[in-house]
């Protein structure tokens, strides 16, 4: 019996589609861990291709087939091969994939040394356009931020809040299928150093005292946070592009504050 391939029917509206594919599918992946060699986690995938104006649809099942074929071998190092596979199997000029996952790091409280695990939202963003492949690392790191203005004008205390610093970095390309390695831990530590104080999952009283005073001694605006991170990223020769974004959940205002800066290496 012959089964009709409806997706390959011609479409007469002559409208190309930039992205069509699947999203919100979870799959196990392996991430290189600076301290333990590797870390297994579960990622949420978005996979898409472009669709020329003459075709009615794409073949959605092929995305899942590709994930299944790479099952237990999905790592950052395999991403270029996977994106090429998407291009080839779906007969597409362009392909995109977002791989978002929690990454855990061991944190030591600053005074007592109490050990606990902290999770960070991370992502691999990869795209192919013809022969070119692009790869971007993304991390979002919570920090404490304390307002310099509030500290300067107050007799005591200063308003402080949770902030989030998101780093997107493009590592230098080594060849058509590989990029310079950048540890996720490096990006997390860099972002934490750009705020007033880090966030910890476990703090004793001595630690709370330390962190409170650390934040008071290091007041920063959102502008300071993105600039602090940008200076460090710009000095890293492994990177050819970055975007730094900071958002504060303002504690005394009915709004959030944000700042963004981007840079391309000349």
Description:
With 266 residues, the protein is of the alpha+beta class. The protein has a single domain (15-264), classed as Urate Oxidase (Roll). Helices cover 24% and strands 43% of the residues. It has six helices and eleven strands. The chain has helices at residues 61-69, 79-89, 148-153, 184-194, 205-217, 222-234; strands at residues 17-33, 37-51, 94-108, 115-129, 132-146, 160-171, 173-175, 178-179, 197-198, 239-248, 257-264. Strands 1, 2, 3, 4, 5, 6, 9, 10 and 11 form a nine-stranded antiparallel beta sheet that branches. A two-stranded antiparallel ribbon has the order 7-8. It is elongated, with a radius of gyration of 22 Å. The relative contact order is 0.12.
Question: Would you spell out the secondary-structure blueprint of this structure?
Answer:
Elements: E1 17-33, E2 37-51, H1 61-69, H2 79-89, E3 94-108, E4 115-129, E5 132-146, H3 148-153, E6 160-171, E7 173-175, E8 178-179, H4 184-194, E9 197-198, H5 205-217, H6 222-234, E10 239-248, E11 257-264
Antiparallel strand pairs: 1-2, 2-3, 3-4, 4-5, 5-6, 5-9, 6-10, 7-8, 10-11
Summarize this structure briefly.
With 266 residues, the chain is α+β, with helices and mostly antiparallel strands. The protein has helices at 61-69, 79-89, 148-153, 184-194, 205-217, 222-234; strands at 17-33, 37-51, 94-108, 115-129, 132-146, 160-171, 173-175, 178-179, 197-198, 239-248, 257-264. It has a single domain (15-264), classed as Urate Oxidase.
């Amino acid at each position: 019996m012959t089964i009709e391939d409806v997706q390959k029917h011609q479409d007469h509206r002559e409208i190309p589609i930039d992205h069509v594919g699947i999203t919100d599918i979870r799959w196990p992946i392996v991430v290189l861990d600076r301290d333990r060699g590797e870390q297994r986690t579960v990622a949420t995938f978005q996979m898409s291709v472009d669709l020329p104006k003459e075709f009615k649809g794409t073949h959605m099942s092929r995305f899942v087939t590709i994930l299944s074929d790479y099952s237990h071998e999905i790592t950052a190092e395999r991403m270029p091969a996977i994106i090429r596979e998407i291009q080839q199997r779906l007969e597409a000029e362009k392909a995109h994939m977002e791989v978002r996952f929690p990454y855990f790091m061991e944190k030591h409280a600053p005074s007592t040394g109490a050990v606990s695990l902290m999770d960070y939202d991370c992502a691999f963003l990869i795209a192919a356009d013809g022969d070119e492949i692009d790869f971007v690392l993304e991390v979002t790191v919570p920090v404490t931020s304390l307002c310099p203005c509030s500290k300067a004008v107050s007799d005591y205390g200063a308003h402080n809040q949770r902030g989030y610093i998101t780093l997107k970095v493009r590592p230098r390309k080594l060849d058509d299928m590989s990029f310079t390695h950048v540890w996720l831990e490096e990006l997390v530590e860099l972002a934490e150093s750009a705020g007033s104080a880090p966030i910890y999952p476990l703090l004793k009283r001595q630690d709370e005292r330390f962190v409170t005073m650390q934040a008071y001694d290091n007041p920063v605006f959102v502008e300071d946070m993105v600039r602090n991170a940008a200076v460090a990223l710009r000095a890293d020769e492994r990177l050819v592009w970055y975007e730094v974004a900071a958002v504060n959940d303002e504690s005394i205002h009915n709004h959030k504050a944000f700042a963004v800066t981007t840079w391309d290496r000349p």
